[in-house]
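Bumping with the actual sequence this time:
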Amino acid sequence: MFDLLIPKTERDRWIEEGNARSYRMYPDLGWVSVYYLNIEQEVAHAIEIARSK
């Protein structure tokens, strides 16, 4: 599991694209979650999100 605080505009974009989910505990803040990094594509999304910060 990967959680990261990013600007809300970036958070909204990642969620809209289906590559992240709103953070379960603080959905109104800039947190996103990429659940269960089981496949290479999910790991790549997590790295890309981290770099966009």
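The tokens above came from a reply further down the thread. The mean pLDDT is 81.
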